[in-house]
Amino acid sequence: MPLPHAPVDITFAPNGRDGFVTVGAVNASILPIRIDSKGVPSPNGPAVPVGGAVDGLGSAEISPDGHNLYVASVTGRQLVVFDIHDDATLSEVKQRVAGGINTIYPVITPDGRHVFFSNEISGTVQAFNRADDGTSSEVAGSPYQAGLLPHIASTTPDGRFLYVPNMGSSFISSYEIRPDGTLRPLPNVDFAPEPGVKPNRR
């Protein structure tokens, strides 16, 4: 499937049929796609501009209910929120959430209540509560300190914990996700130990 600019990431709706491709290092846009019965993707409506010449996209994440798309604008230092229509096309930009330097890799808890993303150069993780309409509000204490070059964050399937590998450090930043969306830092564990040496907590 030819694309007008370089594709950066692809993410799929819970129905497994509809998806979205983030396109462009600058003047970025989001292209809705649909996967046919043979697995071939094709455009599903027009590409939607993110809105700024400085917007260069990283990864994207769809909410568990399939109603919203969250896209990290790396160079724009923002998390950009869209509504997903019933036909799997996108709204115009619904919300812009300020991030740090190199905003990357949004992640949403399985219950859809909390949103997190890493700021790679700032060395932080930001935490938000997600409203029923998909908009996000930052929680008290955010951003939270991570290690050097925090990267792809993940939550546990029960939504109780958040883990952030740090590419420039030898440990994974670990947090408890509290019911109000705030994070409680847990001991970090060294994941670059010497062979035969038990990893250490920090």
UniProtKB/TrEMBL annotation:
Record-listed E.C. numbers: 3.1.1.31
Keywords: Hydrolase
Enzyme class: hydrolase
GO molecular function: 6-phosphogluconolactonase activity
Short name of one Pfam family: Lactonase
Family stated for the protein in its record: Belongs to the cycloisomerase 2 family.
Protein name per its UniProtKB record: 6-phosphogluconolactonase
Species whose genome carries this gene: Nocardia cerradoensis
